[in-house]
């Protein structure tokens, strides 16, 4: 006999992340949800708001017994170049509606849109999670997520990598490269130097250094930096989040010499080993645009791409905000940015990147 689903009465309100008790309660609930990501955690929202000067809004749904039934973390983005938007969640690739109650999906979405209108944000973005209603413009074919289980040990992990990429990893293991893991100021400086050069070479502005420091501070032992050095000089570095048994290498990059040194290959293989030692069983290689070099690189490592579902809602008569770097409108700007001296890119980039969200 099929059981009839009964809608559970829900109350929606905005959480106070300045209250330690409320924050701890939300943190525990998020960690217990199967579809949660580190971008749903209060730690992420607080770090982004503090580092970039944005305002965080965390919408929660509660049952009549005050137990949590849903969550929607949002960041209010304001940029003179890219306009205003309410994003779930800011500077993340996920963090949309998270709920255990089907009837909460529509309620959370409508409440978020009401907030967007109140804040005069013409665009509301949900990066992952469900969205109900014809008002949403859906993007379900442009981005891929790359996640798979970690192998039992290094030898098995190496065999899980397809032959061509495995050969590159073997060469990196035979090279005279040093791998370090840390969370201190020195590790953060080395990571930022590498990451800033990497994104400049790709033609995009670098985020403020404070964003990385705040994420490390808020996540504590659930975040660290792995760096690969050659002759004492950092050439590849990645800041990784650890959440519910999954490693999320989120901000990673390499110098101009990283490819010839195979520093990136060494970095990701070393990170898989490090994540396993931490007790992780899954590795989330992040998202990439369909048909791009990063997507191909991740497939070379044996990761199958899974389509990601995003949704946007825009004010009547307006097009939603679009900040995709592959948009042809940005081609000339990206080409020019690649030619900037690194010190110029590092000085100007953070002011622009704060508005990307």
Automatic annotation (TrEMBL):
Native species of this protein? Sphingomonas aliaeris
Its name, as the record gives it, is FemAB family PEP-CTERM system-associated protein
Instruction: Please give the coiled-coil regions recorded for this protein.
Output: none
| Domain called BioF2-like acetyltransferase: residue spans | 166-299
- List the InterPro entries hit by this protein, alphabetically: Acyl_CoA_acyltransferase, BioF2-like_GNAT_dom, PEP-CTERM_FemAB-rel, PG_Glycine_Bridge_Synth
